[in-house]
């Protein structure tokens, strides 16, 4: 886990909002056709009003920081929060600061 990479990823409000939405996918993505257990389809994030390429860049940043995991099913990519990394990050920040 790279704490600096995570802090950089969390520095942007859109990325924090994406993580908040992923925390309760049934509340924010109930209209998704695929089961939410596999994650949220990348296309569902268009709700934030940004272009698909911008959303993809934000999701890639979250993935590099290991804050989300991905799963490819056919042509679709699904995203889920990486709760283990988030919990470890919060624990370490709590110890170090």
Automatic annotation (TrEMBL):
In terms of Pfam families, this protein maps to:
HTH_5 (PF01022)
GO MF, one annotated term: DNA binding
Spell out the SUPFAM superfamilies in the cross-references: Winged helix' DNA-binding domain
| The keyword Transcription regulation appears for this protein | yes
User: Do the record's keywords include Transcription?
Assistant: yes
**What residues does the HTH arsR-type domain cover?**
1-97
Sorted alphabetically, the keyword list is: DNA-binding, Transcription, Transcription regulation
Matches recorded under PANTHER family: TRANSCRIPTIONAL REGULATOR, ARSR FAMILY (PTHR33154), TRANSCRIPTIONAL REPRESSOR SDPR (PTHR33154:SF33)
Q: Which NCBIfam families does the UniProt record give?
A: HTH_metalloreg
Query: What is the name of this protein?
Result: ArsR family transcriptional regulator
Q: Give the species this sequence originates from.
A: Azoarcus indigens
Taxonomic lineage from the root:
Bacteria, Pseudomonadati, Pseudomonadota, Betaproteobacteria, Rhodocyclales
